[in-house]
Design brief:
The structure holds two protein chains of two kinds.
Chain A (H helix, E strand, L loop, with lengths): L13 E10 L2 E11 L4 E6 L5 H8 L7 E6 L2 E3 L4 H6 L2 E4 L11 H6 L5 E3 L2 E3 H15 L14 H14 L4 E5 L7 H16 L3 E5 L3 H7 L2 E6 L2 E6 L6 H9 L18 E9 L7 E6 L3 E6 L5 H8 L7 E6 L2 E3 L4 H6 L2 E4 L3 H5 L6 H6 L7 E3 L2 E4 L1 H14 L16 H11 L7 E5 L7 H16 L3 E5 L3 H7 L2 E6 L2 E7 L5 H8 L11
Parallel strand pairs in A: 3-10, 3-11, 6-9, 9-10, 15-22, 15-23, 18-21, 21-22
Antiparallel strand pairs in A: 1-2, 1-4, 4-5, 7-8, 11-12, 13-14, 13-16, 16-17, 19-20, 23-24
Chain B lengths: L10 H4 L2 H32 L8 H26 L7 H17 L5 H25 L4 H20 L9 H8 L1 E2 L2 E2 H19 L1 H11 L1 H6 L4 H27 L10 H13 L9 H20 L4 H27 L1
Antiparallel strand pairs in B: 1-2
Helix pairs in contact in B: 2-13, 2-14, 3-8, 3-9, 3-11, 3-12, 3-13, 4-5, 4-6, 4-11, 5-6, 5-11, 7-11, 8-9, 9-11, 12-13, 12-14, 13-14
The chains are: A alpha/beta, B mainly alpha.
């Protein structure tokens, strides 16, 4: 660890050189190189999908890089399995907390450690003693016998950091540790991180809170589209510089959004909406014939707002109006009946019926208009076939006919099937959650075309997207959310990637950044 | 048409015709393997039985007649399976129906039609109970329906004190004994019930919603389907089919005996899964279930005619189920690669 290079400077703990990784033809990482130094907090920043998580997964042995090398203490290593990562002293704390529910703190901290045994029996005393030391070091205020279900989010993070320390981790990677912590809890976590690096541990710190990164991290690596666009070693970097590095220099056209047009009647009005998880006091309006974007980072509460409107989740405060009438749907079927369509984020899990035909997938949302008569409630199959074909052509689904199974379509065409479902009757409001995720460039252009055309017929469209260029391309207005709140509304020429990013990284207690 | 789906153009396969042939062969085995097995069995039993006793019209009619009760209860189970759940209470539900309908006639002195209606209503009520427990209380279907089924066993014993109910009117036993146009009445019941269920599943809103619920629960919900209602309706259909099976069994046996229909559970499951491996790629469907029932009964009947010891017949029943489903699973897996 303290070995020296020829020039007398210490070797970095981990050196990542030219690491590339592709998934199904998409470059997730391209020639990524940087060093992780012992005893330093190293920040990883970038937009969603920029490559931070893929890189961490390569270090954790979950993915294998296609090319490039990872060196630890100057020795090239292959991390084929999560076990190998542990053996090298690398420890990972993911956002989806890997605690075992209903187990106590001690057993969660000791998870995966070889226990001290006498014959067939486990002796918990040495483990308990070690856990006690770790708990003391971290300043844990709860007992080791506490069930982890009874802990706060911040306390759970302490348990996970404790688990890493139990194995004498040399690197602890934390994925957005402060995303759901209160201000005082954040302070507490920062103190622990500083204590860890003072002991010589390296900390890899992924965060979307850029002021936190500029305060806490001595080294910062910025990712964009799988490339490293900025490498900061041992010098301060301002939040503004970080934003610039995240957005990148080459902005893709168009430079700003559509010219504002005279809005029609308000179709969807959300007033002071809050739920019991993240959404706080959200208000916005979508007018007839208008495409409104909901921008921000993953986890900002945008999907939650959409699901409340659609009756798939509950609000605890606030009001929603559809076409001037207050609504509070208890089930999505009520929203469908009221003329709302929803294209969910997880296409395969929540959007399509993969092993069914295109016409089944399309007609399922509007079966009522397919029956012969009220007294003879049989479905007109040929009529269903015909009308499915009509809307499939409308969204240019590339398939021989609508009798094809949806699993045989590309991601883009599957997405078109989900959209086509809501075009059988023109919806009053169509909500699309991440419409172009996993959709290739060509089909993306088709999707934007369909969205714009639908708005021209008078439908109010709400587009949730983490792809800011998409919002600029398709929206008349963009409402940006961060940490459950609306942090800005952009109209016409003000809709730029830079402005959306600025407001996406705003958070509570902080003045919205001047563009 | 130049815009054919890319995935339908098997470009790497064109270079390897032998692989393509193998792929098609496996696809055929996957879809028609169970039918081929049925044909081979019938051929074998015809040749092996003395004076082709197996192939005599009376014996074939007999096989179909023996299949009717299993086919009715298995069709109800098919509906639940299509909706993405399972029901382990159908056998016990049928047993309860058998003692209930006979008891209502013999002990309570209810008119025949009323007794049958009440019994079917009780079967439906069992279905509602299953549906509420599984979809609203969200108990795992295995646990909920097994629990409900066990309670039904208890109720059967409570109602009869364990004694078979006999001395039933001729009209009741005639329900299954008589024929219409030379074909036994049970076959007519089966044809009507299966036809109604086929139409319900494929030509009504409810049927489409049940299919959607089973195919992808979350997607169904977000497409505006009330999954809980669709699944509860499926449990009710299974309950009604079970009750009808129980009533017909009591009529065939001429008595209402506790636990008389319990064994139908396994036969029904075997048929449903055999059927899912027939003609379709693992989907549950009514026609497949009927073919599944016929396969099981052809095997049983044929082995009986050949004089095979009874224990072989059970080995056969379990074996053919595993074999047929494994065959289609493997064939489909290779066909997709």
């Amino acid at each position: 660890m303290n070995s020296l290079r020829d020039d007398g400077r210490p070797l970095p703990f981990i050196r990542i050189s030219g690491v590339s990784k592709t998934f199904g033809g998409v470059n997730a990482l391209t020639g990524v190189s940087f060093d992780i130094r012992a005893g330093v907090v190293h920040g990883l920043v970038g937009a969603n999908g920029a490559g931070k998580s893929t890189l961490i997964r390569c270090l954790a042995g979950i993915h294998q890089p296609d090319s490039g090398t990872i060196e630890i203490d100057g020795e090239p290593v292959v991390i084929a399995e999560p076990d190998d990562a542990s053996a090298h002293g690398l420890s990972f704390i993911h956002q989806e907390m890997s605690l075992i529910p209903r187990w106590d703190v001690l057993r969660n901290m000791a998870l995966g450690l070889p226990p001290t045994t006498h014959g067939k029996f486990i002796d918990w005393r040495p483990t308990q003693a070690r856990a006690g030391e770790v708990a003391h070091m971290l300043g844990m205020t709860f007992k080791l016998s506490t069930c982890v279900d009874d802990l706060s989010v911040a306390e759970k993070w302490m348990v996970l950091i404790g688990r890493a320390l139990m194995r004498d981790a040399r690197l602890i990677a934390m994925d957005e540790p402060t995303a759901s912590l209160s201000a005082t809890e954040v302070e507490r976590l920062h103190a622990v991180v500083r204590m860890l690096v003072a002991r010589g541990t390296a900390v890899l710190f992924v965060s979307h809170r850029l002021d936190e990164v500029s305060q806490l991290c001595r080294d910062v690596t910025v990712f964009k589209d799988g490339f490293v666009t900025e490498r900061v070693v041992d010098r301060p970097i301002s939040k503004a510089q970080l934003v610039h590095a995240i957005v990148g220099r080459e902005l893709v056209i168009p430079e700003h959004g559509h010219e504002p047009k005279t809005p029609g009647q308000p179709i969807l009005e959300v007033r002071h909406l809050s739920d019991d998880t993240i959404v706080k006091d959200v208000s916005f309006v979508v007018h007839e014939g208008e495409v409104v974007g909901l921008g921000g980072l993953v986890g900002a509460g945008r999907s939650e707002v959409a699901k409340i409107v659609f009756g798939a989740a509950r609000a605890i405060a606030g009001e929603v109006f559809l076409d001037g009438r207050p609504i509070a749907f208890r089930h999505p079927s009520d929203a469908v009946a009221a003329g709302i369509g929803f294209v969910p984020e997880e296409r395969r899990a929540e959007g399509v019926f993969l092993d069914r035909t295109i016409d089944f997938n399309i007609n399922i949302a509007k079966l009522g208009s397919m029956i012969t008569s009220r007294w003879w409630p049989l479905l007109k199959v040929k009529e269903g076939h015909r009308r499915a074909q009509r809307v499939a052509d409308l969204v240019t689904i590339k398939a021989k006919d609508v009798g094809i199974l949806v699993e045989n379509l590309s991601g883009g065409n599957q997405q078109k099937v989900v959209i086509a479902r809501w075009l059988l009757d023109r919806p009053q409001l169509l909500i699309l959650d991440e419409p172009s995720r996993g959709v290739d460039v060509g089909a993306r252009a088709d999707l934007y075309d369909v969205i714009r055309k639908l708005a021209e017929t008078g439908t109010a469209v709400l587009v949730i997207s983490s792809d800011n260029e998409e919002l600029v391309t398709v929206c008349d207005r963009v409402v940006v959310m961060a940490e459950g709140r609306v942090t800005g509304t952009l109209t016409g020429p003000a809709i730029t990637v830079e402005h959306i990013v600025h407001r996406s990284f705003a958070h509570e207690g902080e003045e919205a950044l001047a563009p | 048409m130049s815009l054919a789906t890319p995935s339908l153009a098997p470009s790497p396969l064109q270079a390897q015709p032998s692989r393509r042939v193998r792929r098609i062969a496996l696809l055929i085995i996957g879809k028609y393997g169970t039918l081929i097995a049925l044909a081979i069995m019938m051929l074998y039993f015809s040749l092996a039985s003395k004076n082709t006793a197996f192939l005599q019209p009376n014996n074939l009619l007999n096989i179909v007649n023996q299949s009717t009760l299993t086919a009715i209860i298995a069709s109800g189970l098919t509906i639940v399976s299509v909706a993405g759940e399972l029901d382990l209470s159908v056998g016990y539900n049928a047993s309860l129906a058998a003692v209930l309908v006979t008891g209502l006639i013999a002990n309570q002195g209810l008119p025949l039609a009323l007794a049958i209606l009440v019994t079917i209503a009780v079967g439906a009520l069992v279905g509602v109970t299953n549906g509420v427990l599984v979809t609203k209380v969200r108990i795992n279907a295995v646990v909920a329906t097994l629990g409900v089924g066990t309670i039904l066993v208890g109720l059967s014993f409570g109602y009869t004190a364990g004694t078979p109910i006999i001395s039933l009117p001729k009209a009741f036993t005639g329900l299954t004994l008589r024929s219409f146009l030379g074909i036994p009445l049970p076959i007519w019941y089966m044809v009507v019930i299966l036809a109604v269920l086929w139409v319900a599943l494929n030509r009504t809103q409810l049927g489409q919603r049940m299919q959607a619920s089973g195919a992808n629960r979350s997607a169904a919900r977000l497409a505006g389907v009330r999954v809980e209602r669709a699944q509860t309706a499926a449990f009710v259909i299974a309950g009604v089919c079970a009750a009808i099976t129980g009533i017909l069994l009591a009529s065939v046996l001429g008595s209402g005996t506790v636990s008389s229909a319990d064994g139908y559970l396994l036969d029904a499951f075997a048929a449903v899964f055999l059927g899912s491996a027939t003609l379709r790629d693992g989907d549950f469907h009514i026609v497949g279930t009927l073919i599944g029932v016929l396969i099981v009964n052809v095997g049983f009947n044929g082995l009986g005619i050949l004089g095979t010891p009874t224990f072989y017949q059970f080995v056969f029943k379990g074996g053919i189920l595993i074999f047929a489903v494994a065959l289609s699973t493997i064939a489909r897996k290779y066909a997709k690669d």
